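Data availability (excerpt). All sequences and predicted token strings are deposited with the supplementary files. A representative entry, Lipoprotein, is shown inline so that the format can be inspected without opening the archive.
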Amino acid sequence: MKTQITILLFAIIMIVSACRNEKKQSANAETTTVVKTDSALLNGSKTIETGDPKFPSTGVDAQHFVPNNYKIDLETEGDLNHDNLKDKVIVLINKTDTTDKRVTLILLKQQDNTYKLDQKSFAAVEPKYTADGYQIYETEDVDIDSLGTLTFQMYGVGPSGNLFSSYKYIDNKLMLININSYSMGAGGHTELDLDILKGIYKETNTNTMKEDMPSETKTKKYKIGTVLFENSNPKDIVIKAFDVNGVK
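Structure token line:
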């Protein structure tokens, strides 16, 4: 009789445990936004594009430049090239693999109200998620100000920190003009400002271990030459700048 009761209790415990695990898996499935879809799971509904997607040279609106399996993740408009026409900037994400690299398109508005694809970059904006499925930045934004400066603003906590990168048309070329990064670590904060055009490296370190939180700023010349939008990778530029100039 005791053996039967023991077996019955064990069975009940196993059923309760299984239900809890099922609820946990269901909750995780509802909260995750990472997508990595195998082509076999699409049942032939759409063709998966391999390699870098292709884009038309002109289009009637921003949506016209979005390939199959992609969607607009970030978008803004403003006059980039000072022709009094509102251009568009769109950042596209792969719907079948949100850990994939994102592509940013610069669409210049024409007099007939159509758009011309002027620039594209696969590195100006980082992937949305890491390979492990973690979102890199908490908040992302893109903006074109009244002076025609295009700025990507990425806000994160922990190791990712904040990363702002700004671009401007100079002699009909869209160039990286400034990068600003801010990160918090154990015992301190570090802010880096890179003036690409002037070739100035400015690093400010704040010691949060002391009550008055003293700061120390180091400024030096650091020229990296012209960085075109299509070839820019702000995160890599920041890492290299710290390696060359950072406080050891």
